[in-house]
Design a protein that fits this description.
By secondary structure, the chain is mainly alpha-helical. The chain is 89% helix and 0% strand. The chain has 2 domains: 74 residues; 82 residues. α4 packs across α5.
Length: 172
């Protein structure tokens, strides 16, 4: 759920629950409501706002949780790549040596550590590539914006030309 939808839904929940609370208080018609209706309405408003805030932040938490679940399969491609490396015995020698040195043997513990290190390395590499491609796209967009700005004359040229036209070519 995107942010504007969450905000709208929180507002609707607040109004709906607030209306229910206010209706209940008005129907009760008890002495506190008769003596201090403003205080009762203010407490109702607080309850609606609280319910809306709870919904808003709760829905954001659920949205982030769903995003994390959706992102998990993305790491599978890294594990697949490391599995291919292990099958073809095309390990990175420095990383394998580090895994063996940290575990003390060349068994399954070294293999597990190598997998973790290699996956984290692949993730960092992709993040770096993504950041550099985004920076390149921003740079190209800035260049295009500058070229478009340089291609058209500034507004002062038009204002100046209009003033010159009025002074020299229009008879008052």
């Amino acid at each position: 759920m995107n942010k504007p939808t969450r905000i709208l839904t929180a507002i609707l929940v607040s109004l709906l629950l607030g209306g229910m609370f206010a209706y209940q208080d008005a129907q009760k018609n008890k002495p506190p409501y008769q003596q201090h209706p403003v205080v009762c309405i203010a407490t109702d408003f607080f309850r609606w706002s609280l319910s809306g805030l709870i919904f808003y932040f709760g829905s954001g938490w659920l949205a982030r949780r769903k995003e994390r679940k959706l992102k998990q399969p993305e790491n599978d491609k890294y594990y697949d790549e490391v599995a291919r490396e292990l099958e073809t015995k095309s390990l990175r020698p420095g990383l394998w040596t580090r895994a063996v040195a940290e575990t003390g043997d060349e068994g399954s513990a070294a293999k597990a550590l190598y997998i973790r290190l290699r996956v984290s390395e692949l993730v960092k590499q992709e993040q770096t590539d993504r950041a550099s491609s985004q920076a390149e796209a921003r740079r190209k967009a800035d260049e295009q914006r500058r070229a478009a700005k340089a291609a058209k004359p500034p507004i002062l040229w038009y204002v100046g030309a209009g003033i010159v036209y009025l002074v020299f070519f229009v008879d008052f």
